[in-house]
Design goal:
This protein is of the alpha+beta class. Among the domains are: 126-198, Up-down Bundle (Acyl-CoA Binding Protein); 208-319, Roll (PH-domain like); 509-575. It has 16 helices and 18 strands. The chain has helices at residues 8-11, 37-48, 76-79, 105-120, 128-143, 167-180, 186-198, 274-292, 322-330, 372-377, 423-432, 465-470, 486-496, 509-540, 547-550, 553-575, and strands at 12-19, 25-32, 56-61, 67-69, 87-92, 208-211, 217-223, 226-231, 234-240, 244-250, 253-260, 263-270, 303-305, 313-315, 383-384, 398-400, 405-407, 500-502. Helix 4 crosses helix 7 (186-198) and helix 5 crosses helix 6. Residues 461-473 have a biased composition (Polar residues).
């Protein structure tokens, strides 16, 4: 009744990019205003041929530069309001407690890629000896068995695998690769990598900066075992899920209700702002449900967060629990999907960085070998947005094995080991200094610093399911589209009259003003309607409650000169 918008807004489509774990591969699709987050998740999972889906999610950075996970139950457009360009990152959301229980090699491979990112960006922090073994598994997966004729010199130094990678560690990695890795296939090396990484304290940890009651800088991480607190590289607290009774937050304060030795304890950590505290609370609640509940049916439909003096937040858990996934996969029998491994652009040696697209992401298992040429020459299912990751300032910390702490040199200033610097900003800054002869693409995760006129420059893209259906093609088949840039695609789409495409999602100044005016008009009408009804009740009522109001001179004049004549006209009209 009070809708002032155009009907075209309902059919408007918004374009977005989805960066995969390899950074040089991006999916592109469109979504409509009314579609929810599950639409994009289904599109990605189908494109990557994943069935153990609940371990993964899509992450984005909102207009306040706060990272968030895409909620499958909420409207996409409401979650990415003000974001331009709209870019999601395909990431592991729940790190499997035991990676060997993952049934499909594809799932293990994507977890392996995620952990390689964590190792490179410093989140998977470990002792140098453990880091050397992990790096050796990566080298074995990338290069195969050691060959004295092929692997000469400092060949490991061509790979960027660790945040603080030193020549001494590279020598140790070469020795391990030569003497201990022989005979392992890429899949075996990756599985051994996962097993080794899963036993580290920082496995699955995404550090959240907080402060304790004394003002000390800490980092909270949440994984399958509970909530962990780190100060520098030293673990200071570990709250197991069995010890946690409740998780809440009050404004910027994240509160854990613990039961230790039959005594209740309230432990609070202060977050930088309210949005980061809310994000930490959501992560903790979802991780707890995923790893501790037997079935998703046992999870409350709505979990309410927030305290007495903060705005309450409702969380609707969506998806299966880990136990459900393991049980469901026992009944699944399908041919293993093929995995096309290749060098990761962020860690490949210089000789491999100028190659074309990567086949890291698997193709659907039903594709025949004859189609591989078609994929490379005709339709490329992933966008080649290659980025290079150059080493940051290298540090040479001394490690005390007993204290498990990092002690920097006198001449070296070492940042906190778990400092969760923005990896997207890091990739972007590294890419901006590269020579122009490389056909590279900066990290597409929006941080607010990059130019807002960013366009998706690529010759071919994978079509969205909606376009496949509208064109009568099978959703598993690639659909050729001419998308030199998104603006051209939008123009051609509108010229056909099939789709009312929108170039960008975020509201422009005029759009914001229009929304404010529309809301103001609607609010004014509702207020006028309310007071009109209240006035009629006061005038027509015989109750003593309003007797003093009816005797007011202003109300008497209003009733005599306006209300009664208007009432007579209405009754005469009804009588006729």
């Amino acid at each position: 009744m009070f809708r002032f918008g155009s009907r075209k807004d309902v059919n408007c489509e918004f374009k977005c990019g989805i960066r995969l774990l390899d950074d040089n591969e991006v999916l592109q699709t469109e979504f409509k205003r009314e579609q929810k987050g599950q639409f994009l998740l289904d599109f990605v999972f189908k494109s990557l041929n994943l069935i153990e889906r609940d371990y993964f999610g899509l992450r984005f950075v909102d207009q306040n530069k706060q990272r968030n996970w895409l909620d499958p139950t909420r409207s996409i457009i409401k979650q990415v309001k003000g974001v331009d360009p709209i870019v999601f990152c395909f990431r592991v959301k729940f790190y499997a407690a035991d990676p060997s229980l993952l049934k499909e090699e594809i799932t293990r491979y994507f977890l392996y890629l995620q952990l390689r990112r964590d190792l490179l960006h410093g989140r998977l922090y470990c002792m140098p000896s453990d880091a050397a073994v992990l790096m050796a598994f990566v080298i074995q997966s990338e290069l195969g068995d050691f060959d004295p004729e092929e692997h000469v010199g400092e060949y490991v130094s061509e790979f960027k695998l660790l945040l603080n990678q030193t020549s001494k560690m590279e020598t140790q990695v070469m020795d391990i690769h030569k003497n201990e890795m022989r005979g392992q296939t890429p899949a075996e090396a990756e599985l051994n990598f996962l097993k080794k990484a899963s036993h580290l304290e920082t496995y699955g940890i995404d550090p959240h900066p907080v402060k304790d009651q004394r003002g000390n800088q800490l980092y909270l991480g949440v994984n399958h075992s509970g909530i962990l607190a780190f100060q520098g590289s030293r673990k200071t607290h570990h709250f197991k899920w069995s010890e946690l009774q409740k998780i809440t937050y009050e404004s910027r304060m994240f509160i854990a209700h613990c039961l230790i030795n039959d005594k209740k304890h309230l432990i609070g950590f202060k977050c930088p702002n309210i949005s980061s505290c809310h994000y930490l609370w959501r992560c903790a609640v979802e991780q707890r449900y995923f790893f501790t509940m037997n079935s998703s049916r046992d999870i409350p439909f709505v979990t309410t967060g927030g305290g007495m003096f903060s705005r309450s937040t409702k969380l609707r858990y969506s998806g299966r629990t880990e136990r459900e996934i393991i049980e469901d996969m026992k009944r699944v029998d399908r041919v293993s999907a093929s995995i096309h491994r290749s060098y990761s652009i962020t860690s490949a040696p210089p000789s491999m960085r100028t190659l074309g697209r990567s086949n890291t992401a698997p193709l659907p298992h039903h594709e025949s070998p004859e189609r591989s040429t078609y994929y490379h020459s005709k339709v490329v299912p992933y966008l080649n947005y290659s980025t290079l990751s150059e080493p940051c300032d290298e540090h040479n910390p001394h490690i005390d094995p007993e204290a498990n702490e990092v002690h920097p040199n006198a001449n070296v200033s070492l940042p906190p080991s778990l400092d969760p610097f923005d990896e997207e900003d890091w990739d972007l800054s590294m890419t901006s200094s590269l020579p122009t002869e490389f056909d590279l693409r900066p990290d597409l995760t929006p941080t607010g610093e990059e130019c807002h006129t960013l366009s998706f420059e690529t010759p071919e893209v994978r079509s969205s399911p909606s376009h496949m259906a509208s064109n009568g093609t099978d959703s598993d088949e690639p659909f050729e589209q001419n998308s030199d840039i998104l603006e051209k695609k939008s123009t051609s789409s509108q010229s056909k009259g099939s789709v009312n495409s929108c170039r960008a999602l975020p509201p422009k100044p005029l759009t914001k003003l229009y929304a404010i005016v529309r809301t103001s008009i609607l609010s004014s009408l509702l207020v006028m309607l309310f007071f009109s009804c209240l006035l009629v009740v006061i005038i027509e009522s015989d109750s003593d409650l309003f007797s003093h109001l009816r005797k007011l001179p202003e109300l008497v004049v209003l009733r005599r000169d306006y209300y009664e004549p208007f009432k007579d006209i209405v009754w005469q009209s009804i009588g006729k």
